[in-house]
Design goal:
single chain; alpha+beta; L-amino peptidase D-ALA esterase/amidase; four-stranded mixed beta sheet; about 25% helix; Aminopeptidase
């Protein structure tokens, strides 16, 4: 049984060509992965477009579903409603290092930053991979940021790669997952919504896949593993679309990511950092005042429901895809996380 063929499909909307966030035109994703005994970690980087993001920003907004997190850059995104760097995902103790790497890269591309121009707002999200990874070693640095940046492309690997290398999901192996959905509005325009998740949350008894509550059965099959007594994980959800939305509408879109997350059995536990960010590639906003601001015809709020539906479905699908693609991993001090397919090779028959 191959993993891709066995993955249940969520919802009634059609997937994009590759069922990845990069089905939104212009996007690219890259990984840098460390798989070295106690070091099971990495970096995942998302580029909204191939140009200079500081000079040509994209509209964005975020929703903090549960704020147990250590991200950098959210305050300015909330205030100004734009992205001006790639989005970086990594482990909790590497946020500072990745922010510095982003700043250095932005200065390299734009030497005026911090002098003739304003400073740059690095955007870095994190989850705690400390069960499988020696997070105290803080082994990630500029070279791993650069590797992820140089590896960006339209098609990318999912599962225990990049920032997802050491992540756990529902006490199984988690990591990077992605999906996309296409929509046609009542007005006739067609758009794509894509999601990418860094999936590191959940307690096994609540696991739900495609509406089927499989957690208790999976718990029986992992009887030798000591179960979690409380939620201590996190998830970062990135939603992208080519639909022309402003930052207020993108804020609404990011909130709907919580619908897809909750369908999998999440309840945004006390120790879980659950953050969703949404951005649009339909237009860019100039850094310099001598360039004109774009004149955009935004989607009417009364027509936006299909985008909400596509967000919920693609987020749920992305989480499932992360579970399906991840492989059993042994890390720090011999800690092990089994993959979903290793403990449930009959998963398709269970759904």
């Amino acid at each position: 049984m191959s993993a891709p063929d066995s993955i249940p499909f969520i919802g009634q909307l059609s997937a994009g060509r590759h069922n990845l966030i990069t089905d939104v035109p212009g996007l690219s994703v890259g990984h840098s992965t460390l798989n070295n005994r106690d070091h099971q970690t990495g970096v995942t980087l998302i580029k909204p477009h191939s140009g200079n993001l500081f000079c040509d920003k994209v509209p964005a907004a975020a929703t903090v579903l549960n704020g147990f997190g250590k991200s950098i850059g959210l305050v300015q995104v909330e205030e100004l409603g734009v992205l001006e760097t790639p989005i970086v995902l990594t482990n909790t103790f590497s946020v500072g290092a990745m922010a510095q790497a982003q700043i250095r890269q932005s200065i390299k591309e734009n030497p005026e930053i911090g002098r003739e121009w304003s400073t740059v707002n690095p955007l870095v999200f994190e989850c705690n991979d400390g069960y499988l990874n020696d997070i105290q070693a803080m082994v990630l640095g500029d070279e791993h940021y650069q590797q992820a940046l140089n590896n960006t492309q339209a098609q990318f690997i999912q599962g225990a790669v990049g920032a997802g290398r050491g992540m756990s999901c529902f006490e199984l192996k988690g990591g990077i997952g992605s999906a996309s959905r296409g929509v046609t509005l009542k007005s006739g325009e067609s758009y794509t919504v894509g999601a990418l998740v860094l999936s590191n949350f959940g307690r096994l008894p609540t696991l739900t896949i495609a509406g089927k509550h499989l957690g208790p059965l999976m718990q029986e099959r992992l009887a030798s593993q000591k179960p979690l007594t409380e939620e201590k994980g996190s998830i970062i959800i990135i939603v992208a679309t080519n639909a022309p939305l402003d930052s207020r509408q993108l804020k609404r879109l990011s909130l709907r990511a919580g619908v897809g997350l909750s369908r999998t059995g999440a309840f945004f536990g006390n120790g879980s950092g659950d953050i969703a960010l949404a951005f649009s590639t339909a237009y860019t906003l100039p850094q310099q005042t001598d360039r004109p601001m774009p004149a955009i015809s935004f989607i009417h709020d009364a027509l936006i429901d299909p985008l909400f539906q596509a967000t919920a479905d693609s987020v749920e699908q992305a989480i499932i895809n992360a579970l399906w693609h991840a492989e059993t991993t042994v890390g720090r001090d011999g800690h092990r996380r089994f993959s979903l397919l290793d403990i449930a090779p009959d998963i398709r028959n269970l759904l």
